[in-house]
Structures are given as C-alpha cells and as structure tokens.
Amino acid sequence: MKILMMASSSGVGLTYHLTRLSIALKQMGNDIIVLSGPNEQVSGLSMELKKNGIKHFVSKYIDHADFASLFNCGKDISRILKKYDIDIIHANSSTHAFSAYFAVHSSTVINKPAIITSVHSVPRGALKIPKWISMISILNIASSIVLPVSNYTKKQFIKHGLIPQKAVTMYNAIELDVFDEAAKKAELSLDVSVGTVVTYAANLIPIKGHEYFLMAAARVLKKHRAKFLIVGDGPRKKYLQKIAYKLGILNDVLFTGRINWPYIYYLLSNKTDICVSSSLSENFPFYILECMAARKPIVTTNVGGISEAVINGINGYLVPPKDPLSLSEAILQLIKKPEKATEIGLNGRRIVERNFTMKKLTNKLKNVYEYALGSKGI
Predict the structure, then answer these.
(1) Shared-domain flag, residues 205 and 158
(2) Cut 0.90: pTM above it
(3) Which residues, in sequence order, are CB contacts of 257 under 8 Å at separation 6+?
C-alpha cells in the first residue's frame, strides 16, 4: 500500500511523532511518502526518514491556511500523485484534507487515492462557530474517514455535524522500545536532587493553566520539600516567573525551557517522581502517555479525553480544572504514600502496554486504510 503522510499544519513542520508513525508503517511493509513544511520539530528527522527508505518532500505552503496556500499545497500534492501511485493520503487537519481533495479531484491520475484525516483538536474561542462550520464541511466532503484522537473529540465533531459513520477514534500511541532505549541512554544534565521532583511539560500558553500548577506548588511546599519543573517554552514564561516570585517559590521552580525527544523520555523516567497536568483543555495529549510509559503517577485535570487514559485512583488522580487546592492535595497524597505512588505508576505502564502501543495503532490504521480502499471499490 502506498501512503502519503501529511505532517503537522501547525507550523512545526516535520514532527517527531509523525516521523515515528511513518517508520512504523514502513516496517509493516507499506510504501510511505511524507510531505511536510520545511521545518523540523527535532533536528535530523528528515535524515531518519531517509535512513528508513521513506521519501520526504517539502511544501512551503502546507503550514498555512489561507486560500492561496491551500491551493498551492494541493498543487504540490498533485505533483506527487502524478509521480507515485498513491492509495491513501493521510491528512492531519481539515486544511490538509482541503488541499488533498483539491489535488485528487484536479488530478488526471486514474487511481484516485482515499483521503483519511486525523483531527487532534476542536475549535474554541471567539471564532468557534465559523471554525466549526468550515472544518466540519471540509471533513464531510473531503474525507473518506475521519480519525479523532479521542472519544471526547469524536463526540464534539459529531455534535457539530460530522457524519457519524465517518468517525473512528484513533488514539495517540507510544513506541515503547524507542521510549525505553531513550530512557536508558539519552542523558540530560539537570540537577534536581532535592526532595520530590514534580514535572509539568507543556507549551507556556494560557490554555495549559500553569498558574494553577504554581499555586498548587506553593501549597505543597508548605508541607513538603520538592522541586517543580516547568518543561516547555512560550510567550508566558516571564509572566509565570513573576507568579512564582510573588508566591515566594521561585527558587523551588525550575523553568527548563523546551526539552525535545529523546531527552524528555529520559527526564520523565529518571528525574521525575510525579507528573502533573493543570491544563484547562485537552484532547488526548502525548505527554500523559509518556508519563505512563515512564511508570510515573499522574495528577491531571479531568478535561477532554484525558479520562480515557487516566483512571482515577488506578494510574493517577483526576482533579477539576482551575482548582489548585485539589491539585495540591492529590500531589501530597502521592508524596505521603510512596508505595502507592509506585503502584499507580506501574499501573500506568501496564495500561500503555495494553492500549496505546505503536503496534496497536498501526494495526488499527491498516484496517482503516483497507476499509477506505474497499469502500472505493479497489
């Protein structure tokens, strides 16, 4: 099966997770071609594709949603369709689906590939209704199958008009052998030898709710010695540092900046005791799965699709958003009961091994691809 994978349309370009998924699909015997923007989330990803026999093309238009870019990206896709006999185009947003649909229906190739579209987020904010209308319309028209990243995401899309028969939940997944290798070898120089280490990895943007993490940290530090790591970068860094200063905990909080793969796997596995997410909105973040793969207990806000991975009291604790008191109490509960914390962490690893492995994801994707081709009469 020849599959054209379209990488992130969020401006990141070629992402780590898309690269690993492409390699896993290639190892199953598929012929994979990747189309991405010119950037790389982590240096060397394009070379990694090449090493595994995967062709990688770049479109400078793929990361832009204006109409001119959408059509020019479609032209880039058309050139690939003319050169290679593509069976499946796997888009990673509605804007990708639009460009792919334009390419397929303007192309003279006999074999018209099926378009499968993964959706990783739901619209929010002031432009909510227009965004929903345009996104759902494109997905209904352009995509044979739509792959929401969680059941929560699926329900939101169907609620706003996605044809239910098109929707198949496709969770994110962890490549455990790669994760474990990085956890052993990808050393990271970071001095966090004082007390319990509590980590939150996320972009420093409002929706991630870092201020509630800091408020919870201040409560925990009144009762227990700990170091709180804020892993990530973004426009709120100075603002969050000011909050930490006003709370009197600046010396107990380490802003590490962005830590990319594979070093984040090492950090979670070897330097972290408890993982936290105080996010106000999520769909199904890789970070939660990475914490589980690292055998760490999780304290997270119960938003979006997180409860589809974190079972309260089994592999972590679910707390309400914007509630630093509940967040701090759950963290303290894990600190006070280290044996229970270890058990919860091990439970998380078992859940990942059972439900969220790369093998499970690629096998399900294979079935979806074959169904899509069958429905085309191929």
Answers:
(1) no
(2) yes
(3) 231, 232, 233
Rounded to whole angstroms, how far apart are CA atoms 233 and 258? 5
Which amino acid is it at 23? I
In Å, how far are 1, 22, 24, 31 from 168, measured between CA atoms? Answer: 20, 20, 20, 23
What are the structure tokens assigned to 345, written together?
A: 């962490």
Q: Specify whether the CB–CB gap between 307 and 333 falls below 8 A.
A: no
Predicted confidence (pLDDT) per residue in 53-65, tens digit: 999 999 999 988 8
Neighbours of 44 (CB within 10 A): 10
| Beta strands, E only, 120-247 | 145-148, 196-201, 226-231
| 132 and 189 housed in the same domain | no
Which residue type does 293 have? A
Nearest to 39 by CA among 59, 13, 11: 13
* Domain carrying residue 242: 177-355
- pLDDT digit string, tens, across residues 286-325: 999 999 999 999 999 999 999 999 999 999 999 999 999 9
Residue 28 sits in a domain of what CATH number? 3.40.50.2000
